[in-house]
Amino acid sequence: MLEVRAERLRRDILALAGTGAGVTELHERAIELVDRTARSDLTCWALIDPQTLTFGSMTSGRNRIPGEYEPLLAESECGGHDPATFAEVARSGRTVVRASDLPATDVAHSLRHGAVWHPLGLDRELRVAFTVDGYCWGAAGFVRSGSDFSDRDLEFLTMVAPALAAATRAAAVHTLRQRPGNDPGPAVVLTDPSGEPVALTAAARYWQDRLAGPVRLAVLLRAATFGARSSPSGVFRARISDGRGFWVLVRATALVTDGDESRTVVTVEPAPADEFTDLLFAAYALTARERDVCTDVLAGLSTAEIARRRHISSNTVQDHLKSVYAKTGAGSRAELAARLAGRQP
């Protein structure tokens, strides 16, 4: 019976992805279907940047997490201390993680559990990573009160996770658009140690309005501030979807003033073309050598020029291109270049 339910969900979700549905629409439908088998009081699904493993958009179930708790969840995800963050689950190679299976001390010191779930009367949590072809494209968190998530819940979500991953990847690629119209100019926000904005440029207000849906700017600023602080490099970097198919590049680092690094500079801008192409390389699951060849094709190099540059034979270049054509559905170099620029014929 469980396998029948899982197969029905896989079929429905992949069919919806095939219609060109966006990530939000796809996740809203998936939330409805999953809840019929694995019940939760609150759930939040994320589009994940497959390379930085930061959340790119958020979709809630019928009961939305109260807005005042959203920045705390962002801090939990990016602060570098909480257990079983979406990024940690993805990096671990696990599909499903139940909070009750984690060390009790980790959960007891968790910001997410102590400052968000406990005040809301929720004491059970389950997290799922949606990974396909080695890349994580999405994740979901489920919380509820009362009885814990059962082994049956874990089994069901493990069954459907690969299809949810493939569907999320398809939805992200189907709706990709390179730039959201005119560039509004330099968008810079200065945040305090808690991630609250203390100063911002006029262009930042543009993004404040544009990101009011899937990822509110307040949540993004909290994530960027704590992400920069916890990063070994001191730099936070994420690509965010605005829910309309456009991708935005967000970066953050400490502002150093006379030795004071308590404030953080956050910049927001349309994702450059190379970032866009990089996402498509991941979406099409291209190998490192196939990416090199595609980069050279986009630069206008001939087969012979690619062979000399990469120190391989012309036949090997052609073999890589045949593999790329099969993965992308392109039939020629011109069509491949169009697809990798987001202009699917």
Low-confidence stretches: none
Shape: globular
For the secondary structure, the number of strands is: 10
| Main sheet: strand order | 2-1-5-4-3
Q: What is the CATH class designation of the largest domain?
A: Alpha Beta
CATH superfamily of the largest domain: GAF domain
Cα-based radius of gyration, to the nearest Å: 21 Å
Counted by DSSP, the helix tally is 14
Fraction of residues in helix: 40-55%
**Proper CATH architecture of the largest domain:** 2-Layer Sandwich
Distance between the termini: 42 Å
Number of domains: 3
Taking the sheet with the most strands, its summary is: 5 strands, antiparallel
Provide the β-strand percentage band: 15-25%
Short description:
The chain has 345 residues and is an alpha+beta fold.
Structure description:
InterPro entries: GAF, Sig_transdc_resp-reg_C-effctor, Tscrpt_reg_LuxR_C, WH-like_DNA-bd_sf. The protein has 345 residues and is α+β, with helices and mostly antiparallel strands. The chain has three domains: 2-174, GAF domain (Beta-Lactamase); 187-272, PAS domain (Beta-Lactamase, 2-Layer Sandwich); 286-340, Arc Repressor Mutant, subunit A. The chain is built from 14 helices and ten strands. The chain has helices at 2-18, 23-35, 70-78, 86-92, 104-108, 111-117, 151-174, 202-210, 217-230, 273-283, 288-298, 303-310, 314-328, 333-340, and strands at residues 42-48, 55-60, 96-98, 124-132, 135-144, 187-191, 197-200, 235-241, 247-257, 260-270. It has a five-stranded antiparallel sheet with strand order 2-1-5-4-3, sandwiched between helices. It has a five-stranded antiparallel sheet with strand order 7-6-10-9-8. A hairpin with a 6-residue loop joins strand 1 and strand 2 (55-60). It starts with a helix and ends in a 5-residue tail after the last helix.
